[in-house]
Specification:
- With about 240 residues, the protein is of the alpha+beta class.
- It has nine helices and seven strands, in the order H-H-E-E-H-H-H-H-H-H-H-E-E-E-E-E.
- It folds into two domains: about 150 residues, no CATH class; about 60 residues, Nucleic acid-binding proteins (OB fold (Dihydrolipoamide Acetyltransferase, E2P)).
- The chain has a five-stranded mixed sheet, with no helix packed on it. Strands 1-2 form a two-stranded antiparallel sheet.
- A hairpin with a 6-residue loop joins strand 6 and strand 7.
- Helix 6 crosses helix 8.
């Protein structure tokens, strides 16, 4: 056991070991204890894009950003594929190795796991975990780990596709009540957390009629946008 620890925290393997440990800690804290790493940051975003992402609109959002919002976000194919023209290398890379169509942290975790395991195995068998030669295994394992990640994560794509398309609908979010943490008006978008069967669910929301809604207002989800990506809310009165 001591030998494994020495190898894991050797000169070659220490960076991957720390990264993998942080990823494990992330999954333990967010999955088991349900801790929500909320940075509570207010961000104003003004975007007018018609290029690399599938958008042709003015997007003005003021929202709270937290680790779960970012890391569990699924990168969708339509968000990285251009409307016209060929795919660039980075887009092909994301799609081929399943960083598209699956939650980012899910794919990243398995990539780091395989990268770490291959590097550990290679340096252990050759005794090079504390030498410059060991970095050949460190860098050489990057692409084999990517291919292993693709093979392992591919079966999960259908699961996450069905979960994302039907999961929130089956929970019947319409009519749910929550506290709006950020003031919104017109087309501004925010996140709203509602509790369903004891589990917190975060969704993107905006004012139903574009009317101003103050922060810390109790609101009700009353409808969805036509693309079913954003929920419409209004103040809730008992």
């Amino acid at each position: 056991m001591n030998e494994i620890i020495d190898i894991a925290f050797s000169r070659v393997n220490i960076s991957l070991s720390i990264l993998f440990a942080l990823l494990l800690l992330y999954w333990i804290l967010t999955t088991v204890s349900g801790i929500d790493f909320d940075f509570d940051m207010d961000v104003d975003v003004d975007v007018d894009v018609d290029a690399d992402v599938d958008m042709d609109t003015d997007f003005d959002a003021r929202t709270n950003i937290d680790v779960n919002d970012v890391s569990n976000t699924e990168v969708r194919k339509e968000d990285v594929v251009r409307r016209r023209g060929k795919l660039n290398f980075f887009q092909i890379f994301l799609i081929y190795f399943n960083f598209v169509g699956l939650p980012f942290m899910f794919t990243l975790t398995f990539w780091v796991l395989f990268w770490w395991a291959l590097t550990m195995t290679g340096t252990y068998l050759t005794g090079s975990y504390d030498t410059t030669f060991g970095f050949i295994f460190f860098f050489g394992a990057i692409f084999p780990a990517l291919f292993l990640t693709k093979i392992f994560t591919t079966p999960f794509k259908s699961f996450f596709k069905n979960f994302n398309s039907d999961g929130e609908t089956s929970l019947e979010l319409l009519g749910r009540v929550g506290i709006l943490n950020t003031a919104i008006s017109e087309d501004k978008i925010a996140t709203l957390e509602v509790t369903i069967e004891g589990s917190p669910i975060k969704v993107y929301v905006k004012s139903k009629n574009g009317k101003h809604i103050l922060a810390n207002t109790q609101v009700e989800i009353v409808n969805q946008t036509t693309d079913k990506k954003i929920y419409l809310i209004k103040p809730y009165y008992n």
